[in-house]
Specification:
- The strands form 11 sheets. A 4-stranded mixed beta sheet has the order 3-9-8-5.
- It has 6 helices and 36 strands.
- With 701 residues, the protein is mostly beta strands.
- This is Cadherin-7 isoform X2.
- Cadherins are calcium-dependent cell adhesion proteins.
């Protein structure tokens, strides 16, 4: 007769109830004279009852309250004069007591895993007086465990990995199950492990739950993942024990146990000869069943006639070998290439070297296809020369180009006029002879860089380009010129032989041996014996050669204002009020006509170095002429020091619509302008108000 789950539970409860009833003498109230009871304020008396532990089976499934035990007092004569009461944990809610008999029952299903014991207090009272006839005492009701909890894998399901080709017994992962039953009572919490799914590849240790490999040479490339079902059963695995299961997903991780292999022993690719350098010719891949780092490749060309024409790189994403052009292809010179390419693993595991070399070879044949190419010049750059005196139509040189294709189509020539905008040159369309078309000037353009176009007669769209540099040779067709306009001055007491000017010349021409100039004094200057010219073939020196004459009074005009001849040194001026040293009107206005003062120690011939008077000078050079006039005055000034000196002038120009802004003009003018407003500008303008104001009210106290 088989029992179902419900019947089996009832069967266990009946057995437990039997055990409890058979031990009733342990749970009933018993008389004990050996333990005294103390009560403060009274004489010592012996204790009439003691409470022992009660046990009750968990998970009672019956409909009636479960009998726990019985309380009884020696005072109780069975006449109903004594009543029993309970207090403490679960009193009245879980545990009830018959106040007449002292029988204790459990009214609810108890679960040891929720609470293992309850502490209660019991007391016997006189029913009439409701006073205790026995002192209150404490007792414990313990919940006795049954195997009502199956083992559970709290961390499941599990995932783990183990390298492929691992030896038998390699540890994979440990699983752990827990059982909520009492581990100190019976075998309810003693768990053993077993494998329900995953054999014969894996095994599990019964006591520890450690999963290990059970077969050698498990190949990831054949099967890379396994699903295991592990069972944990309590009661030490015996019949009637409860069990729980979990799943374990085991992945075989890759090792480099597969060498790369080309799917084919040879490949052939066709490429046009016009394919530019760095273009991709082909992609090829050696197959490697491994993954990740174990499948990384290196490709290289190890042999063949295209070592310098092609190269192979690795695509790190796809692990393909990329064949690329590194030198221009030419069908006419070589129509095919053969390459021997090797693929090898970058990472090699020495444990698997016995499986063979971890590399492979293949042959790649590359066929170069002919395309219609533009004409090619015999030289990338032609250098030609022609004299700038060459007449129109002079032959300068010849360029040549040919069709590199097998058809060898005739070529016609022309000049790219974007490089010869002035059309200085022509080219014969058939022969490639370049001639002059216009007069040339080296000084305008010394080198002409032109582009010559060569066009196929049969296919005008195919155009080649050649580059010609035409250098213009120089002839002596330009007169020399002075490097600058020279204005030379000399002191009256210059020593004999003193160099007063260096003169040089330039020439736009460019003779091979350099310029050779000769200098001489021209015209009436050649008759001036005060100076000589020393020709150094490159530059010339103008030298004072006259001797000094006896010094005589220097100035004929005795009425000249002495103030104009005084030069003060190391003296700070007095501002606008200082009018003692200079003629302010002369400094202010350039248009005053001056009489030229003649010095006795300068001969009239020197006057060719003088500048024209101001009356003939245009206004746009008025400042420069002002300086030259003052310089000339200083040169003929008899009171000037015999050494270089610095003289300062204040000149603002003339012709301004607003006239001069300087207050110097106010000294000698009768301006009717009223300057009384200066007194309103504050103390800083007091001085000006004093100078230009008209009344005493403009003065500040």
């Amino acid at each position: 007769m088989k029992l179902g789950k419900v019947e089996f539970c009832h069967f266990l409860q009946i057995i437990a109830l039997f055990l409890c009833l058979s031990g009733m003498n342990l749970t009933e109230l018993s008389r004990s004279r050996s333990k005294p009871y103390f009560q403060s304020g009274r004489s010592r008396t012996k204790r009439s009852w003691v409470w022992n532990q009660f046990f009750v089976l968990e998970e009672y499934m019956g409909t009636d309250p479960l009998y726990v035990g019985k309380l009884h007092s020696d005072v109780d004569k069975g006449d109903g004069s004594i009543k029993y009461i309970l207090s403490g944990e679960g009193a009245s809610s879980i545990f009830i007591i018959d106040e007449n008999t002292g029988d204790i029952h459990a009214t609810k299903r108890l679960d040891r895993e929720e609470q293992a014991y309850y502490t209660l207090r019991a007391q016997a009272l006189d029913r009439l007086t409701n006073k205790p006839v026995e002192p209150e005492s404490e007792f414990v009701i313990k919940i006795q465990d049954i195997n009502d909890n199956e083992p559970k894998f709290l961390d499941g399901p599990y995932t783990a990995g183990v390298p492929e080709m691992s030896p038998v017994g390699t540890s994979v992962v440990q699983v752990t199950a827990t059982d909520a039953d009492d581990p100190t009572y019976g075998n309810s919490a003693r768990v053993v492990y077993s494998i329900l799914q995953g054999q014969p590849y894996f095994s599990v240790e019964p006591k520890t739950g450690i999963i290990k490999t059970a077969l050698p040479n498990m190949d990831r490339e054949a099967k890379d993942q396994y699903l295991l079902v592990i069972q944990a059963k309590d009661m030490v695995g015996q019949n009637g024990g409860l069990s729980g299961t979990t799943s374990v997903t085991v992945t075989l991780t890759d090792v480099n146990d597969n060498p790369p292999r080309f799917p084919r022993r040879s490949y052939q690719y066709n490429v046009p000869e016009s394919l530019p350098v760095a273009s991709v010719v082909a992609r090829l891949k050696a197959v490697d069943a491994d993954v990740g780092l174990n499948a990384e490749m290196e490709y290289k060309i190890v042999d063949g006639d295209g070592l310098g024409v092609f190269k192979v790189l690795v695509d790190k994403e796809t692990q393909e070998g990329i064949i690329m052009i590194q030198k221009e292809l030419d069908y006419e010179s070589k129509a095919s290439y053969t390459l021997r390419i090797e693929a090898a693993n970058k990472q090699v595991d020495p444990r698997f070297l016995s499986l063979g070399p971890f590399s492979d070879m293949t042959t790649v044949k590359i066929i170069v296809e002919d395309v219609d190419e533009p004409p090619v010049f015999t030289s990338r750059l032609y250098s030609m020369v022609v004299s700038e005196a060459a007449k129109v139509g002079t032959i300068i040189g010849t360029v040549a180009a040919h069709d590199p294709d097998a058809s060898n189509s005739p070529v016609r020539y022309s000049i790219d006029r974007n490089t010869d905008l002035e059309r200085y040159f022509n080219i014969d369309a058939n022969s490639g002879v370049i001639t002059t078309a216009k007069p040339l000037d080296r000084e305008t353009n010394a080198v002409h860089n032109i582009t010559v176009l060569a066009m196929e007669s049969q296919n005008p769209s195919q155009i080649g380009r050649g580059y010609v540099a035409i250098t213009i040779l120089d002839i002596n067709d330009n007169a020399p010129e002075f490097a600058m306009d020279y204005e030379t001055t000399v002191c009256e007491n210059a020593e004999l032989g003193k160099v007063i000017q260096r003169i040089s010349a330039i020439d736009k021409d460019d003779p091979p041996s350099g310029h050779q100039f000769s200098f001489s004094l021209a015209g009436e200057a050649a008759n001036n014996h005060n100076f000589t010219l020393q020709d150094n073939k490159v530059l010339v020196l103008l030298i004072v050669t006259m001797r000094r004459r006896k010094k005589e009074p220097l100035v004929f005009d005795e009425e000249r204002d002495i103030r104009e001849n005084i030069v003060r040194y190391d003296d700070e001026g007095g501002g606008e009020e200082d009018t003692e040293a200079f003629d302010m009107a002369a400094l202010r206005n350039l248009n005053i006509i001056r009489d030229t003062k003649t010095r006795r120690d300068v001969t009239p011939e020197i006057q060719f170095l003088s500048r024209p008077s101001f009356k003939s000078i245009p206004d746009n050079v008025i400042f420069r002429e002002f300086i030259w006039e003052r310089l000339k005055e200083a040169d003929v000034d008899p009171c000037a020091p015999p050494y270089d000196s610095l003289q300062t002038y204040a000149f603002e120009g003339n012709g301004s619509v607003a006239e001069s802004l300087s207050s110097l003009d106010s000294i000698s003018s009768n301006s009717e302008q009223n300057y009384d407003y200066l007194s309103d500008w504050g103390p800083r303008f007091k001085r000006l108000a004093d100078m230009y104001g008209t009344g005493p009210e403009n003065l500040y106290s």
